[in-house]
Amino acid sequence: MSETTLPAPKRDLLGHPRGLTFLFGTEMWERFSYYGMRALLTLYMVKYLLLPENRDRVLGLDLLHRMLEAVFGPLAVQPLASQIYGLYTALVYLTPVLGGLIADRWLGRKRTIILGALLMALGHFMMAAENMFLFALLALILGNGAFKPNISSQVGTLYAAGDARRDRAYSIFYVGINLGAFLAPFVCGTLGERVAWHWGFAAAGVGMLISTVVYLAGQSSLPEDRPKRAEQAERQKLTREDWRAIGAMLVLCVFVTFFWATYEQQGNTIVLWTDDYTNRTIDLIFWRGEVPTTWFLALNPFMIFAFTPFVVALWARQARSGTEPSTLVKMSVGCFGVALANLIMVAAAFEAGATGKASPFWLIGYFAILTAGELYLSPTGLSFVSKIAPASLLSMLMGIWFLTNFAGNFLAGWLGSFWSVMDKPHFFLRIAAIAGAAGLAIFTFDRIMKSSPSRSGAW
């Protein structure tokens, strides 16, 4: 059921196909652009764009506001910003289904990736024009839909079926994602907060152009992909095991949605917490000042590539001793990590209630536990899909997997809209409860799958 397309014979680099290096660099700069823009988005809306004196400049905003209020009731500035943030980050992960289908059936992965990259670059530069804000978000949504599932599935095509390096390749690829995400708050965030919002968005656009150049430079190291026309795909009958694997993946998608709904608060309400309730003043011998809010968003990606070698080494040691958790157990651990991280924030909220500002060390603890949880769920999920997906549907099923991010981010926006009307300990406790329930559901599903006599080894 795995992708069987192989690259042209190329010399390996550090034990992996050379194409992985180019995909690593492409994704790193694309994530730099995405997370650079995302780091600024909520602050930009709350502190500038949605204020009464500015909002009339934005084409289509009044219509969108009325539509959201028709569903969710009256929305002040912060709830409206949270809903727009959630809607944007959700739709970013809805369109990959269409992008995967286009690649599988018509354009092929390479051309679809290039189309998506150019659309995203255009969207970032359009953010510099306030009146084009919603159209810029639309370009980014469509571009990401073309780019995201195909770059992720292309990693799997570098390896033959059964190649043990595939899981490690996705972990390496995931480091590239987070290296870009680490750099983004320092560059885009600092420019946006300290110079001008539009400078931060323009920096994200430059990052996307670099991503496009890196991908074009690596074309000879990547496998050829031949899209399967609709009539060809219809003749390729899926087996009973194929349908069973797809069904299990769809059930898992429901549970993983709640992981992303709680995890994605870091770009929404955690940014507001950091800005309003965290003591960001640093007093050193050689420098005293206030750390920009967006810099705290670099903690998660930094910890990703700091923790990844230890997590991979732990799994390898557990594999040798026969104690490595199954894929689904790893995912449940990821959800429990998010629950624990939010319980840390409950304690931080009580301190802020007593003193006015909480120590930044609470955030460091939050991001450390959150990151460990992410490592157990996110790259594991990508590898899981690449293993169980029928080859003819790989990109489309990868796009369907990203629907968990779509639904999760949409739900995250709705949950975030309660930020300004709930006391903070109860808000974080609610988020922890949702993540914990998701972890319990995935763990139970794993027990059910293990009791099945025809269970696939992929999970």
Fold and architecture overview:
This protein has helices spanning 19-49, 52-55, 61-72, 77-91, 96-107, 109-126, 133-156, 165-195, 197-217, 230-235, 240-263, 269-277, 299-321, 327-355, 360-388, 394-401, 403-416, 424-450; strands spanning 12-13, 16-17, 281-283, 288-290. With 459 residues, the protein is an all-alpha fold. The chain has one domain (13-221, 238-450): Up-down Bundle (Growth Hormone, Chain: A), CATH 1.20.1250. Helix 1 packs antiparallel against helix 4 and helix 14 (327-355) runs antiparallel to helix 15. It is globular, with a radius of gyration of 22 Å.
Q: How far is the first residue's CA from the last residue's CA?
A: 14 Å
Looking across the biggest beta sheet, what order are the strands in? Answer: 1-2
Give the count of helical stretches. 18
Shape: globular
> CATH architecture, please?
Up-down Bundle
Q: Do you know the CATH topology? A: Growth Hormone, Chain: A
Helix content: over 70%
SSE topology:
Layout (H helix, E strand, L loop, with lengths): L11 E2 L2 E2 L1 H31 L2 H4 L5 H12 L4 H15 L4 H12 L1 H18 L6 H24 L8 H31 L1 H21 L12 H6 L4 H24 L5 H9 L3 E3 L4 E3 L8 H23 L5 H29 L4 H29 L5 H8 L1 H14 L7 H27 L9
Antiparallel strand pairs: 1-2, 3-4
Quick rundown:
The protein has helices spanning 19-49, 52-55, 61-72, 77-91, 96-107, 109-126, 133-156, 165-195, 197-217, 230-235, 240-263, 269-277, 299-321, 327-355, 360-388, 394-401, 403-416, 424-450; strands at residues 12-13, 16-17, 281-283, 288-290.
